[in-house]
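pasting input
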Amino acid sequence: MAIAFEKTRGLTDIPTHYCPGCTHGIIHRLVAESMEELGVLDKAIGVAPVGCSVLAYKYFNCDMHEAAHGRAPAVATGIKRVHPDNFVFTYQGDGDLASIGTAEIVHAAHRGEKISTIFVNNAIYGMTGGQMAPTTLVGQKATTAPYGRDEALAGKPIRMSEMLATIDGAKFVERVTVTTPAHIRKAKKAIKECFKVQIEGKGFGIVEVLSTCPTNWGLTPVEALRWLEKNMIPYYPLGNFKKPEEGK
Amino acid sequence: MAKVLMKGNEAVGAAAIEAGCRFFFGYPITPQNEIPEYMSRELPKVGGMFVQAESEIAAINMVYGAAGAGARVMTSSSSPGISLKQEGISYLAGAELPCVIVNMMRGGPGLGGIQPSQTDYFQATRGGGNGDYRVLVLAPSDVQELVDLVIEGFDLADEYRNPVMILGDGMIGQMMEPVEFKEREKRELPPKDWATTGTNGKRKPNIINSLYLNAEDLEKHNTYLQNKYNKMREKEVRVESYNVEDADVVISAYGTTARIAKTAISKLEKEGYKVGLIRPISLFPYPYDEFNKIKDDCKGVLTVEMNTGQMLDDVRIALNGRVPTYFYGRTGGMVPTPEEIVNKVKEIYGGAK
Ligand SMILES: Cc1ncc(C[n+]2csc(CCOP(=O)(O)OP(=O)(O)O)c2C)c(N)n1
Ligand code: SF4
Ligand SMILES: [Mg+2]
């Protein structure tokens, strides 16, 4: 019998711990498939964050580091400087990357570290139980914003991709989502393009993936997908912010 | 090899390169800037890599990455910067990664000052960051010993898969002295088969990690770490002592203050006082047993530090009330003089020699 579909070798057989309907799982698969298809899995070294994806080091079938909260880009810098020919990536949430780890991501980009970052933005601190993130939308409820995010108190949500795109060392910046099969295909294309920027030695690349947290948003998985499309995409527009010019 | 005149901080860099360190991640802070400056100048010449990090937090996490990837790696800083590194040091200890960390201590608390001090003794010897862990702490008292300990520190780090801290102070970092890079025998070290190098499709993934969500597993990990620290306690105690059995007063001091204590002791001897010295070289593991050599009717043990009494705790633990303890310290970057120590010893003698 012909095999129509096989699970990527980029993921281990360990069942993930993600909540039903959480899109972390889809994003893992896209990252793993992209590494396998680009032929870099066997030389990949990944860095897991602190957040719901803290156990990503068990799920990706390659060498992994578990980093301190927000420090993945610094850890990846250390790895890549030692092994410049290996493929080095970080996988980080929005609390991890856009709050406690802003200095590390900004400076990894600014040094033009030849690493790739997958930035999973679910507008909430998932792991710790739904506290406000810097990315939480104005009016969105969180356990530390019980009346909804108040712009006067907490400011507006931070747009990391737009900010990082202004940095010279960042060569690839794109925001995608995974709420429909069409979006998933686009997301994978962006991840592969981002990874190629590293493989070709061009500099830093990041793909921001708008992701759901049905558990902490208090929605069903399907409602969460629609909530994301209706509320997050207008504030966090999808699309490519930066890519290397052809031939460069 | 012939002796060369070197400043302490530059000697740290030269010793690290001699030991095969090829990666350095750091952030400027006085009084240790000559270390990153030296490394930025010299590492590229030997195929190494210097990165000026955006902060000490980033620097130590780069160390975590590079050490996990299997490299010999070093970072250096001074007190406020070492405070920022504590997060990473805890992770390095938890994930059992070898590296050398240099602290050229300055006065605190807070921004404090830029003059020499020994105020980070507690932080260095009790772990410093969160969790129940230890780093090997080595305290040189001259530039030659600084060189020797940095070189040996890399081997110790690899042997125990543990961070090693070189605890110096602004004085030793800035001092110029002749040093010799001695021939040394190569140590048998365990292979770094745990390092992340990419699987090359030939082995299972290696994982660098300090997370154990299951309580039983984390307890096991802690027990394992404690056994390792106990092995260090057995095998890695380093101490210089002088005239301990005979002395009526024993001075205990490390690093720069130990040198000053030696000058005080030779002055006192000329006047007929019988004074000994215990100079711990390893601060963790601490040379507790050395204090057992002190006679029961010793008038007292005088601890001298550039702080308000930190190693004093370990001296008291060692003596367990058997002999009276005294303390003399200066702070803020003030350095005790031999005369001050002489006077303090005479006070303990109470007039009767
Ligand atoms: C230094 C430190 N501060 C706080 C925490 C607690 N903490 C764990 S996960 C997390 C938030 C993670 O949120 P995010 O990065 O958005 O990931 P998500 O869980 O949403 O995927 C926090 C604050 C920690 N582990 N370490
Ligand atoms: S808490 Fe949210 S982000 Fe975390 S696994 Fe559950 S749904 Fe996903
Ligand atoms: Mg989040």
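fyi Residues A 18-19, 22, 24, 52, 122, 126-127, 213-216 surround iron/sulfur cluster (ligand 2) (CB under 6 Å).
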